[in-house]
């Protein structure tokens, strides 16, 4: 099984596409529709990369990103933020490695995921 990716995305269509596409590319994917589901999962397992939506029903990806980057267990892991409502990363107040506006090209997203997994490397 490949690298583990945690996706926090409340749009079921986007979640389904990302889950299917990334599994086909060999990743071990876990999708969470809410911040609370994500917080429960991170207690038991840590992924290799986070893919976070900005707008979520019970919080926002910016807060999640800041929490991930503040935790010594996850601070070194890459975070990619995505949003349909924010068009550039100057509005994203968190130390994410990358911001990708929606809609996005899946091949470009895959390229960026592989880039960040490669430079963060195994720990």
From TrEMBL:
GO biological process annotation, one example: phosphorelay signal transduction system
SMART domains in the cross-refs: REC
Response regulatory domain mapped to chain residues: 4-117
PROSITE patterns reported in the protein's UniProt record: RESPONSE_REGULATORY
One Pfam family it belongs to: Response_reg
Keywords carried by this UniProt record: Phosphoprotein
Signal peptide residue numbers: none
Residues recorded as bearing 4-aspartylphosphate in the entry: 53
Gene3D superfamilies reported for this sequence: 3.40.50.2300
PANTHER family: RESPONSE REGULATORY DOMAIN-CONTAINING PROTEIN, STRESS RESPONSE REGULATOR PROTEIN 1
This protein's name: Response regulator receiver domain-containing protein
Phylogenetic classification of the source organism: Bacteria, Pseudomonadati, Bacteroidota, Sphingobacteriia, Sphingobacteriales
């Amino acid at each position: 099984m490949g690298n583990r990716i945690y996706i926090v995305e409340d749009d079921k269509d986007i979640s389904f596409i990302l889950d299917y596409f990334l599994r086909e590319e060999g990743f071990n994917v876990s999708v969470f529709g809410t911040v609370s589901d994500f917080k429960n999962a991170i207690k038991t397992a840590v992924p290799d990369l986070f893919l976070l939506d900005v707008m979520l029903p019970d919080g926002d990806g910016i807060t999640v990103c800041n929490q991930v980057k503040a935790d010594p267990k996850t601070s070194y892991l890459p975070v990619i933020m995505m949003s349909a409502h924010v068009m550039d990363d100057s509005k994203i107040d968190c130390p994410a490695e990358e911001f990708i506006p929606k809609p996005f090209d899946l091949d470009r997203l895959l390229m960026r995921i592989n880039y960040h997994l490669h430079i963060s490397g195994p720990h």
